[in-house]
């Protein structure tokens, strides 16, 4: 599996498996399927409600812990420093693990204005070695700059909505400047119209690949970490089969033209759902 090196030296698989909206009861079999197919990085979150199922699959799989890369996330209600520490312990207990590879603040929730407190708790968790790396999710430039100004630790990762309809060029440039890895959620645009886009389908035909594989390859060539979600065994395997072709300059410029500021999910500056 192709990896990238985070700003603290940890290596992370560039392609992982996301489990948003996978119910806990299904997570065990879906993650088992993904591990059998060859995924080694699994992305969950406390709010997904499936850490137990994910943990069972990980522990049942027989894959050595050091070969796995496990990400989970701190929920919006737990930003106060001590709440964050307790929430982390609860996630570890549900996963049945003694460390995670990556722990992320799920959303900044600017209306509550506690994400700097939460970030200080993340620093402590990282210092204790119970998360090998810590980062954020859904932070925009303003939120990141506040962390830089008020704390000493740069996030290893910012996981944000990113796909060809919403490629986040400016945020990616800021990440590059600070050596923050860009991780894409909904990398396939949630499988909606994007995967029927005529130009992606045409590029796929040229390479003998599907539109989904073209989109994943685009992410990889941009340097993004990508975590497609699927509950369909054939797609779980298909989404891993993206290392045997390369998009050329013409393909990349056609994909660059698809940018339409097409955000699907909430705006992180106003999102304050507490679950
Ligand atoms: P399903 O889980 O039913 O297989 P994203 O990761 O961008 O959020 O996209 C996830 C959505 O895209 C899911 O609805 C998933 O459907 C669908 N999907 C995942 N992989 C593929 C694929 N290779 N081809 C078509 N749709 C896919």
UniProtKB/TrEMBL annotation:
InterPro entries to which the protein is assigned, alphabetical: AKR, Aldo/ket_reductase_CS, NAD(P)_OxRdtase_dom_sf, NADP_OxRdtase_dom
Q: Where is this site: Lowers pKa of active site Tyr?
A: 73
Q: Name one GO molecular function term.
A: oxidoreductase activity, acting on the CH-OH group of donors, NAD or NADP as acceptor
Q: Which SUPFAM superfamilies match?
A: NAD(P)-linked oxidoreductase
Q: Can you tell me which residues form the catalytic site?
A: 48 (proton donor)
Q: Signal sequence span per UniProt?
A: none
* Keywords, in A-Z order: NADP, Oxidoreductase
| PROSITE patterns tied to this protein | ALDOKETO_REDUCTASE_1, ALDOKETO_REDUCTASE_2, ALDOKETO_REDUCTASE_3
Q: Which residues bind substrate?
A: 106
NADP-dependent oxidoreductase domain location, by residue?
A: 15-259
Q: Which family does it belong to?
A: Belongs to the aldo/keto reductase family.
The protein here is known as Aldo/keto reductase
User: In the record, what lineage is assigned to the organism producing the protein?
Assistant: Bacteria, Bacillati, Actinomycetota, Actinomycetes, Kitasatosporales
């Amino acid at each position: 599996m192709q990896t990238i090196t985070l700003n603290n030296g940890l290596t992370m698989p560039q392609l992982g498996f996301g489990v948003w909206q996978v119910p806990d009861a299904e997570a065990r079999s879906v993650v088992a399927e993904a591990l059998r197919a060859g995924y080694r990085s699994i992305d969950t979150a406390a709010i997904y409600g499936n850490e137990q199922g994910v943990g069972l699959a990980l522990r049942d799989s027989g894959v050595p812990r050091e070969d796995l890369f496990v990400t989970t996330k701190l929920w919006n209600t737990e930003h106060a420093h001590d709440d964050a520490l307790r929430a982390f312990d609860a996630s570890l207990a549900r996963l049945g693990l003694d460390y995670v590879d990556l722990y992320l603040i799920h959303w900044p929730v600017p209306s509550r204005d506690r994400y700097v407190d939460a970030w200080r708790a993340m620093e402590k968790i990282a210092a204790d070695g119970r998360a090998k790396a810590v980062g954020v999710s859904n932070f925009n430039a303003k939120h990141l700059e506040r962390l830089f100004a008020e704390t000493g630790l740069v996030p290893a990762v910012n996981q944000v909505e990113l796909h060809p309809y919403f490629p986040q060029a400016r945020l990616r440039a800021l990440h590059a400047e600070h050596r923050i890895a860009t991780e894409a959620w909904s990398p396939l645009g949630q499988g909606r119209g994007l995967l029927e886009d005529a130009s992606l389908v045409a590029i796929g035909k040229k390479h003998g690949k599907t539109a989904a594989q073209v989109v994943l390859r685009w992410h990889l060539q941009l340097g993004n970490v990508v975590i497609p979600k699927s509950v369909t065994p054939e797609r779980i395997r298909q989404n891993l089969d993206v290392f045997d072709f390369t998009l050329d300059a013409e393909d990349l410029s056609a994909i660059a033209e698809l940018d339409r500021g097409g955000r699907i999910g909430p705006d992180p500056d106003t999102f304050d759902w507490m679950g």
